[in-house]
Write a structure and sequence with these properties.
single chain, 234 residues, 2 domains, five-stranded parallel beta sheet, 12 helices
Length: 234
């Protein structure tokens, strides 16, 4: 049985059976991109690894893919031309079976919730020890979720604290423009970024956010992100 298990893992790494046949690394920092490439190459030596440095090139890679197969994507969130959350959402729509793991420095509730709501299946912090990250990615072959310990604790603590908020829901109506702002803030955009996306001034966007906070009776960006996800806006 031990020999069979080793053989199955070997087959997985070599590109047979349920092997990862295509890997996307979306990371704008060249040294980090090279580090992740080397790390993944150790786990999946025969995989087809694509390195992308921007949201645009990530979208171009996605456009060439077809549903099916075993695909792994490591996605950074802070990119020079947008948010990795947008690509996560697009990946989930086109490649529903892909394993999408966030690889980032952002550990705040807003980014974590936005990424998970968009369809991420794992969340790793790049400041972790390299061996620990490799072990968490390696553990996916055993069906484990690759999640940095601090992120796991944050998720548990957040949902424990907000359990009543989630269960209660809300029937509060928002205006179409408030929903637009809620959607963007829920995706992790800053006020200035949301304003630019909507073609309004930062002051106007801030006014909408103030109204959203008041109507929903929330006090943090994490609660706003959670409500955006609950309403299906992210």
């Amino acid at each position: 049985m031990v020999a069979a298990a080793r053989g199955a893992l070997h087959d997985r790494r070599r590109g047979t059976g349920n092997a990862v046949i295509s890997i996307l690394i979306l990371e704008d920092m060249a040294p980090t991109r090279a580090w992740l490439n080397a790390l993944l190459r150790r786990i999946y030596p025969d995989a087809d690894i694509a390195d992308c440095a921007s949201l645009r090139t990530g979208r171009e890679w996605l456009a060439r893919q077809e549903p099916g197969g075993d695909i792994l994507c490591l996605i950074d969130l802070g990119l020079p031309d947008g948010s990795g959350v947008d690509l996560i959402r697009a990946l989930r729509q086109k490649l529903p079976d892909a394993r999408i793991v966030v690889s980032t420095m952002y550990d705040d509730d807003g980014h974590v919730l936005a990424a998970l709501a968009a369809g991420a299946t794992g969340y790793l912090l790049k400041d972790e020890d390299s061996m620990a990250i490799e072990a968490r990615l390696h553990a996916m072959d055993r069906g484990e979720v690759p999640m940095s310990p601090s992120i796991s604790r944050r998720i548990l603590e957040h949902f424990r604290a907000k359990a009543n908020f989630i269960a209660a829901g809300t029937d509060v109506a928002l205006t179409p423009r408030e929903e637009d702002v809620l959607r963007l803030i829920g995706r992790g955009l800053k006020v200035s970024e949301a304003a630019a996306s909507l073609g309004i001034s930062p002051q106007t966007a801030a006014g909408y956010i103030k109204s959203i906070y008041r109507k929903l009776d929330v006090n943090t960006r994490a609660e706003v992100a959670l409500e955006a996800a609950r309403r299906g806006l992210v």
